[in-house]
Structures are given as C-alpha cells and as structure tokens.
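Troubleshooting: if your tokenizer reports a length mismatch, compare your output against this known-good record of 294 residues.
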Amino acid sequence: MDKKAIRGIYISRYNVTNNASEEKIRKQVRHYHSQGINTIIHGVWGNICPMYTSEVMQKTFGYKSCPNQFRDLWLTWLIDEAHKHGMEVHAYFEKGIKIDKNSPIFDLAIERKWVVPGVDRTYPGIEHYILDVEIPEVANFFRDILVEFVEKYPKIDAVQWDDYLGYHAELPGKVNRTNKLTAFSQEMIGAMKQANPKVSFDLCHHNPYWAKKYFAADWPKWNVDRVFIQAYNDKNFTKEVDYAETYDGIAISDQQLHRLPEIIDNNKIKAILVFPNGTNPEDIASKLKQFYVK
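Known-good structure output:
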C-alpha cells in the first residue's frame, strides 16, 4: 500500500493539556509515531478560548487563557518531541469564528454586539452564534490572535481552521456575506504569513461548492496553503473523494475507518486526516496501525 504524505490524527484541546506533565506529553507523541501517524492535529483554541497564555485575550477580554490547568510549555514539549521523530504538528483552531453559551466571552460578545443576528444550528444539539468579522474590532481580534500564535510558537508546522470559518446559509435575512468573509480571511492569512512565512495555513472544510453555497466560504480565493476535504457525510463519500483528489487530501471520522483501504489505494489522494468523535484518539491510532505500519 502506498503511504500518504500526511497521516494525521486530531486530538482535542482538552485531551492532553489538563495538568499533563512533560513526560506524559512526550510519551503520547511517541505512541502516535509508533502507530504510523506522522502528523498531530492538536486543538489549541476553541470557543474563543486559547489553551496557551495570550496577551491579546488579556487585552481584549480580560482573561489570558481557557480555565484549564495546562502547563505553560505543553505545546512546546509536544512540538519538540514530534520534530525529533520527523512528525509535524498542526495547531487546530476549533470552532473558528463561532461561539456557544459556554464560551468565556459569550456575554461580552452579546453586550458588544459582536455577533451576527440569529442562531446557527448547522450541527444538531448545540446552538452557535457567529462573530461578525465585518466589524473591524472582530476582524482585528482574530488577525492579532493568529499573528500572536505563530510568533509565540515559531516552530509550529501549520495552523488549521475548519468549516466553522463560515456563515451558515440559514441565518435570518437574505444577506450574502461571501465577499466580506473572503476579504477577512485574506487579510488574516496575509498577516500570519508576514509574521511567520514558514507556517502553513490549512483548511479542513467542505468541498468548494458546498462551502460557498451553504457557508459563504469561497475558500479557493482565500490564499490558503492546503485544503483537506471533509468527507464526514458517508452517503456522499464518492463525490467527496473526487474533490479530495483535486486538493490536498481527505478528512474522515472514526466512523469511516472502513473507508481507509480504498483511500490508501487511491494514489490521487495525498493525505488522510482522521478526526475521532470519541475522547480517546490513542485507541483510534492503534486501529490505524494495521493500515499505516507495514
């Protein structure tokens, strides 16, 4: 079987960060390497909440990080150990520009009128609100957060955002936000590249047709470095594969591991990312070993 350039697994921002020792973090990285994983996609941010100390957050909202007992150097240890084994670390900005009521800044965002009117119910079971990037203060905040991150962690290989960088089409009113989202994304990515040109800006998003039609996300115009096509809708899997062949790879869930043999055999797909829905990515990595380690 042809091994893909990127064999990545996603790890939630809460999975190893809570008071994890240096030894534990380095051991976990070595475990993933032993299972044939060569890219760790680790959450560093979500719900407008950083898993690291942020001066931008402190200045903007009066708190410096998530309410989590992470060690200050947890990400530095993870990057260092990964690089020792020839692995990459991609920093995952979970939820993108969306928040829910559990966000530490939810009340402030409402008070400041930073959210788009209406509730985003793209995903069942949770109501999201979207920060309005047409507001200069909001756009500048995200730009400054991203610049701060790649300067704080200059050895990170990539940052990755997903379909939460988008506006759901069912929000109230017939408003086309596509061009404004494109301008925002271009500016944010450009500022990141100026601060640290070595870091790749990646997307794990819907195919370009769905992204533009349903999320106002015309990402082919955003100047991103790599795009991995989300293929979580198994009923539409064959069509998503066609897109994945055109772009930089495919993203599947742990419910789609049965798809791995056909993906690995497809020489047109350059990368595979696996996003476990459960809380134990180590178990999923062990299941992947039969495909990746020969």
